[in-house]
Amino acid sequence: MEQPLWWNDMKARAPGGEWVLLELFVGLWGLQWLASHNPGLSHSVPGVGQTAFASYCICGFLVWTALRRYGQRHLGWANAVTLLRCVIVCYLAGMVMYAEHIRSDMLAFLLLALVALSLDGVDGWTARRFQCDSSVGARFDMELDAGFILLLSIAVWQLEQVGAWIMLTGLMRYLFIVAGACWPALKAPLFPSRRRKVVCVVQVVALMMCLLPWVGPLAASIIGAVALVALIHSFGVDTLWLYNTARHRDVLS
C-alpha cells in the first residue's frame, strides 16, 4: 500500500546531514533536564548527576565513533528513540552508584526503568515503520539492553534483595564476549530470534519485580533464579547453534 503524503513528508524530516553531534548534545541536555527534575536525589547526592554525565559521554562517544565508521552522518528516527532510552539508562546508572540513597526514591527509579523498557519496543517499531534500521542501530540497542540489565542486577544486589549471584544475569552478555575472544566461533552472526527479545524483556521485568518494596528477599531470589535459568538456556541455545554451525563449516572446508 502506498504511504500517504504526510507520512513521506515526516520521513523526509528525519534527522540528517552533519547533525549527529547536535543530536548527541540534545541528549545531553535531556539528561541535564532529567537530573534537575528528579525529586530530591540529584540535589542531595551530586554524584548521581556526575556519574550519569560520565556514562552518557562514554555512550555518546561510542555511538559517534560507530556512526562515523559505517559512514552514517545522523542518528535517524529509531536511533533517536534509542538515544532517549540511553539518557534514562545513564541517569539510572548514576542512581545505582549511590544505591544506599535510593530506597526512598525507589518509585522514581522504577518508573524511569519502566519508561526505558517501553522505549525498547518503540525504537524497533520506529526502525521498521520508517525503514531506518541499521547494523549500528541494532548494536546500539543490544549493548544498551545489556547495560540496562547489568545496572538492574547491581541495584538488586546492592539493596540486598538477592545475593551476589544475581550479577550473573547482568554479566552474561559480557562473559559471552570474553568467551568469543577465546573461541572465535562465538563471534559469528546469529540468526534473528524472537526468543532473545522475549528473554531480554523477562530479565528486565524480573529484576524490576525484585526491587518492588513489597517483594521480600525470598520471593526476589525465586524470581531472579527463574529469570537467570531462562537466560542461561537462551545463551546455551545460541552457543550450541554456533558450535554446530562452525563444525559444519569445518567439515565442508
What does this structure look like?
The protein is mainly α and 253 residues long. The chain folds into two domains: 1-159, no CATH class; 163-253, no CATH class. The protein is built from ten helices and no strands. It has helices at 5-12, 20-37, 41-44, 47-69, 76-97, 106-129, 135-158, 167-182, 194-210, 217-252. Helix 8 runs parallel beside helix 10 and helix 9 runs antiparallel to helix 10. The radius of gyration is 20 Å and the shape is globular. The chain starts with a helix and ends with a helix. This is CDP-alcohol phosphatidyltransferase family protein. One of its GO terms (molecular function) is phosphotransferase activity, for other substituted phosphate groups.
Which helices and strands occur, and which strands form pairs?
Elements: H1 5-12, H2 20-37, H3 41-44, H4 47-69, H5 76-97, H6 106-129, H7 135-158, H8 167-182, H9 194-210, H10 217-252
Helix pairs in contact: 2-4, 2-5, 4-5, 5-6, 5-7, 6-9, 7-8, 7-9, 8-10, 9-10
